[in-house]
Protein 1
Amino acid sequence: MIRRNKLTRDTFHVFQANAKNALRQSEQVTSVLICAGTGCIAGGALKIYDNIKAECEKRGLTVYVGLKHDSDEEKSLHVKMSGCHGFCEMGPLVHIEPMGVMYIHVKPEDCHEIIEKTVLGGEIIDRLVYKLDGVAYPRQEDIPFYKKQHRVVLENCGRSDAEDIEEYVAKGGYAAFEKALFEMTDEEICRAITDSGLRGRGGGGFPAGRKWDGARRQKADVKYIVCNGDEGDPGAFMDRSVMEGNPHSVLEGMMIAGRAVGSHEGYIYVRAEYPLAVSRLKAAIALAEEYGLLGEHIMGSDFSFRIHVNRGAGAFVCGEGSALTASIEGKRGMPRVKPPRTIEQGLWAKPTVLNNVETFANVPLIIRNGVDWYRSIGTKTSPGTKAFALTGNVVNTGLIEVPMGTTVREVIFDIGGGIRKGKAFKAVQIGGPSGGCCCASDEHLNLPLDFDSLKSIGAMIGSGGLVVMDEDTCMVETARFFMEFTQKESCGKCVPCREGTKRMLEILNRIVANKGTLEDLDLLEELADTITNTALCGLGQSACKPVQSTLKYFRDEYLRHVVDHHCPICNREKPHPVIDAEKCKGCGKCRKNCPMEAISGTVKQPHSIDPAKCVNCGACVSNCPFGAITAAKEG
Amino acid sequence: MKRENRQQADAVGRIVDSYDCQESNLIAILQDVQNEFKYLSEEALTVIAEKLGVSTAKVYSVATFYENFSLEAKGKHIIRICTGTACHVRKSQPIYDTIREYLALKGKRKTSSDGMFTLETVACLGACGLAPVMTIDGEVHAKMTPESAVALMEQIRQKEDAAV
């Protein structure tokens, strides 16, 4: 590694100016950006990167990897691996600047054509262009999926080389930290964050400024900044994309927090399932240290700050603050009783500011662009944008960022492109196993996505997972699925969560198997109430939300399971009863007893069952005096 | 102590040393040991406890708390099926069931009798855009079906057979 002189404030300005200059120059020549998020890598992005470089070399084109560029050179281009572009469904994605062209579903063998036709010839390859309803959208910004978005936190994710600190600085990075370090007092930073109205993006929506100011007021020699990157919600990957695609923004946010509360050490706790995020963060920290942006006496000031990366080991409960700090300390990740709050006694019983990845990534933007700018986006009580992972049975899955207050309808139908295979929309689960669902009513679809509106229907933003479900999804089965998840992840410390979720899961299993009773529904509601009110931590307190909200909005589906003992979705493939024509005497008893009027036939003639109407209730089987009807096998 | 056991104990000791014998690094130590030996043996846990100066029970309690740690030896290839919400609604369960059947796994068994494959589930890989997803030895495979999953495993089997 090259040993660099640590930057001072003055040399930082020089570095910044040079970087901006280099960026401007590099924007003059063609750049090929290959999305290197987890999704596209799984689709073969690394091979595409290698092929593009090889194709260039074959033609004697000089490939530049960083910003550095010799402007005299005629035939040259930049090839970059960028962070997640968000349109994961269409991956692997390749983006060509300054044309603004985006190619989808790129295969390694397409690279030859991309270089030949598009990069050298300026021609667009129709086959690789995104199309919708017969219209081709060669430019990324025109694609409906992107058009309705407002990308602030994710803006640089798809446009920059995540591991290039120079590019980050050229695009305004670390300027906010410099401002916080030299031009603002700790109190002013806290006030700016409070005034901006920034609320924690991890789920609860607690005002970040109040948290920071609380920690600032604590009198202690040692304080900690902890970044929660334990994005355990199944169906959510916003934080992963930020850590992978723009790791420096997280570091900068933490450094500003450190300056604001008087802390000199920060920890980032990342899920074990995100190895790429861990390596990108570690690389970013090493670079920042090399430049003297992290370490002792940053930019020649008396402020010092270090950041460590901790890998989780697969425990969902570690997303809870006190469990997370216990895990960093090397213990079992179990929550503790609060108070004392984390800002009083957090990591190693010292005052600690704990925010999630997206929250920290918002901080540099607020300091750099000002409070008024931030408040101009989003709603009054929930300013700013929110990143959501849009997944499930929706046409355009991927990572999106919209202003707070965008409606559910806009997200699912305008950005998400509606439901896959032309099916009907049934529900969207917001906030994963700790959240609730929105149903297809107008009231729900017009609901603005922000902290307070979602609470009103018993859901919560959670970390921002939106899992869309179509008409073929049974909501009872979905509730059971979430309960199974939470039950498995319960740490076992408090009785309501340990025992309660277990009993609820048993009841739900019974209901799904069509063996439940109406009383079971009351019991579910009662248990859910008790657990919500008595569990120790957020995991237990919100564990019953999926059950409560499905019971409220999809009670008919529960009734099908417990009253009809037949769910048209779960039991669809179950064979219907059949009448043995040889045994049937045509007495008509089955016809009279069939609640669905599915049986037809004339007296003394063999009867038959219409499978389209039959709901497998079994009434015909038990009423046949001749044993001519065989029941459907248990599916 | 057998020679290979001693070697393992030395290797574990070196890992603990690399973390300055700090108790707070216990999770990172366990991760490194598991990385090296694929699972956490009783001997390894004892060595870690001795070096850190804590009880074996404490090390055991941490090792059993976290999903990622395995106290049993695993197969040569590790298959993980994502059962996160997005994969679930795009039907990941049939993939899991098919592979279990393919590997003839019964009851609580997770490793095939020839020691070739271990089948696990994972709550979410964060690759929800590509659901349903599975990983084989850490490599992500997108948009799986029961058929394509079995085909992938057949490929590995063939490669392994060819190597013998």
Protein 2
Amino acid sequence: MKRITIFMLLLVLTAALAFAGSQQESEPEAAAMSDGPQMGGVLVFARSGDSVGLDPGRETDGESFYGSRQIFDTLVEFKPGTTEVQGALAESWNVSADGLEFTFNLRPGVKFHDGTPFNADAVAFSFERQMDESHPYYDHGPWKYFGGMGMGGIIDEVVVVNDLTVKFVLTAPEAPFIANLAMDFAAIVSPTAVALYDEEFPSNPVGTGPFKLVSWTKDDSIVLEANKDYWGEGPYLDRLILRVIPDATARYLALKAGEVDLIDFPSAEDLELMAADPNIELIQQAGLNVGYIAMNLDKEPFGDVRVRQAMNYAINREEIIEGVYGSAGQVAKNPIPPTIWSYNDDIEPYPFDPDKARELLAEAGFPNGFSTDLWAMPVARPYNPNARRIAEIVQAQLADIGVEIEIVSYDWGTYLDKTDVGEHSMAMLGWTGDNGDPDNFIYLLLSADSAVPPAMNISFWRNEEFTNLTLEAKRVYDQDARAKLYEQAQVIFHEEAPWVPIAHSVVTVPVLNTVHGFVIYPTGSRVFQRVWIDQ
Amino acid sequence: MSTVEQTSAVEQHREPTPFQEKWIRLLRNKGAVVGMGVILLFIVLAIFAPLIAPHDPLEQNISIRKSPPFTESHFLGTDELGRDMLSRLIYGARLSMTIGILSVGISMIGGVAIGVVSGYFGGWLDRIVMRFIDIMLAFPYVLLTIVIVAVLGPSLTNAMIAIDISQLPRYVRLVRASVLAEKESDYVLAERSIGTSDLELMFGSILPNSLAPVIVQATLGVGEAILSSAALSFLGLGAQPPTPEWGLMIASSREFVTSAWWIVTLPGLATLLSVLGFNLFGDGLRDVLDPRLKE
Amino acid sequence: MIRYILRRLLLLIPTLLGVLTIVFFMVALSPGDPARVMLGERASPAQLETIRAELGLDRPLGEQYLNYIFRAVRLDFGRSIKTGRPVMQEIRELFPATVELALVAMVIATSLGILIGVLSAVKQNTWLDYTSMVGALTGVSMPVFWLGLVLIMIFSVGLGWFPTGGRIEVRLFFEPITRLFLIDGLIVWIRDGDSAYLQSAIRHIVLPAIALGTIPIAIIARTTRSSMLETLRQDYVRTARSAGIPEKRVIFRYALKNALLPVITVIGVQFGLLLAGAILTETIFAWPGIGRWIYTAISARDYPAVQAGVAVVSTVFVLINLIVDILYSVVNPKIRLQ
């Protein structure tokens, strides 16, 4: 739990910055399109897997949130395409002087899809079911994300002041609290529907969102229809279908044939074909992520900085990008993506230089190289679409300097379990940011505090100077001052080279050119309320 | 059948041994000869892979990735990492032949031993063994291999173990049935009366006479084992990259159906051809060794 | 006869108990932790513990086993770890997709297989016979998952005739009636005069059914051929011929009827195998059936789902084989004596 607490502290600071600018009522949405959205139509979104469940409190996976995000609203939400927070079901809020009480003024006249009114009781219900063990529906959990964000320790109680006013009392001041409320797990559910469907609620979700669930065919499709009484902008579509097509190329073929309008996770192999297709438009945004190879300092010979640097010289990242990411990736040199403030662009990446690598290895006492293992994740992640293929490339590149690699892979759960405790010598992993703060990467993934099994810092790199910088950056409120600290930390990271940073992926969503108004959210949500299609 | 009459005519001239006689009949079976040729071809490829393959199967050259066949020295083109397809296919033969023959060998030996003992002694031992075999046969083959690999963890060795276990019951049944038939035959009874030991009876007298169907089954089993290991690798449960295993090559080719047909088709063709070889040979063998088995 | 059936049914009980037991221990002994899979990169030890406790994974194995067996005999396999829904409900929703695919594959395989088999037998030792038999042997040797890819490459990517996967065009908002989409489509067509559903369902099932049916076509053709050859040698066929009955009539009225007996057995066994063995085909064609579901459940270490899935599929498999045996013994009483 410790790492989560610290993680939360960091979040507080970052969120403080975020919500300083957005305390007031949300500004009216400027209609993005010049000739205005058109009503009607059906949009089919092809994605790689089915939702696990549609109760946003219960699930943790992106596919589930793809579904639940359409059906539910949160008190506050991220502005389209940003990590900035604005009001949603709460029109406005204020914080008490001691920072312990957040009072939300709820939007009047909002109804759940089942016709029951949205009010303070529903807000209290949605949180209490996740935090109060004696709540009648607490056993619908486990409430994984709520627990993972440490919310149980943050919220003391949720008080219903009147029908449209609700007060959150915190145990301690917590600046990122507002940003947390924009996340999916904090969605407001219909208490009546939860009672009605009981354990079947995850397949019969009822919220206030822009779309309502019509039907769900397991492993095939989720059909949603417009909520005509939606309080906010849109929805413009009559219906929205989330269809499961596991194979990336099959998704592209379905898009090409017009069977679907928008696809998730395209294969890098097909991007060129798609870019050349006049009917397809590629919507891209730099991802809030990093994919890396961590070298385990507790395993020989990676305790020696020369060996770690040699790896950085010997691995040709350009080749990995070309062979695996295609146009959907950019070479990484720092542990944070360039989209995050404090990214240190002055750092010169390690050039591809096998001779230099051999030299360093010889200095470290390995003139003929050595044998070690490289772990490759069994699954595609946003930051690493094909770890096994990267492993193959790295294996060949390192063979060049005499380092013999055995590729190791386990099922995903086992993989995480074993890397957490440092069974690997070198392992691939990565991270997608939750809230856009550098701390969410730098402290969480690289500080000495995170190097305690089960570790987030799977390099087990315990650098005092680096860790102190990251801790100091947590305590300072001024962003410029913090940025300086993080920039300095990145210099140390570069010299000490606990990772071979590989790439930041570019999130690409191919759509038919009849689709308009789709915006990629950095947090990974797929939002369709403002999307419309040519009629 | 006509062949039977012919042999009796030949006997009067030179009396070929039973082995020679069967061998001659096998050589007359066109399918079997073609099958043998294919098997030999793959075995030669497997053994001499380092000499035959034009390139190192693991050598990458990303700048020429996905080159079509007949690009410079790459007769069958290159794969997604610029490795030579032909060389990978040749080295793949090594893996598939080894797995096919080894896994069938193991399950055949195990199955035969269990089947002989169970059939010979009968009684409660036989009942327990057969109950267990029934349970194993209740699992559909594909599902059983997948579940076993899931327990053991994905690797080529574990895939082979899964195939061994899944193929075992058929040998047990086959051998047990013929042992039951032979056990009461005159020659066994005669040997038993002169005090031959159980062990000698089981493996010295009964087994050789029950072996024909087992050999046929084993030949066909090799083909099936090659298919199964390719299927497991395809699902990510068998060989791991960068091993040039055919099933694994097919699996990673999925995203190239739009852009590089040779990466998709060639490993499958290699698999098909090698399995076909064993099936042709096995079919011919069955006609010769065990006409009763002919459906 | 009834005694024979009863005995076979009784023998089924220990077999199925054995299946349940083996599935339980295989799953329990497999490495990997469902709690960990659920939580992904961001798990805390405390959360892991909570989830393990909720799943009952912290209990002694013996207790878990007894619990499982007692519930399994009532067809209650609990709830999926992943989705929280009763696993039997998920199986009920997905099984029809597999059944439909296997049925269509079997219809194709049976009709083509018997046709090829009869033709080869009648034209024994002609080029037609040789081609068919080499073709059949090739079919038996086929890596089905690869065939699926090649079919997609030719007919979906190249020619654009068929979709790459799924059961029906999602934009049609099809509301299943029987969950067998072909039958549902037919019902809608008759009821409302709208054939779009049926057309779409057919277009989607063609490629997977061909891929899945390839091996059975080959096996049925081979069995039909040899059984037919055998029958054609029988005395009564010779008699019929010498009595001047037209050859076509001899073949189809007399010989084929008797030759089909072993073929029926093969068809039954193959159908059982297809229901269970559709995992690869379903994976390639994104067919939302039970095979793909079991496979994903295995990767996610979703214990209850794997247990229920394997148990149900194996039970159906055993039952089909039993029915085949019983049918066979009805028409061929000699079997019962053994």
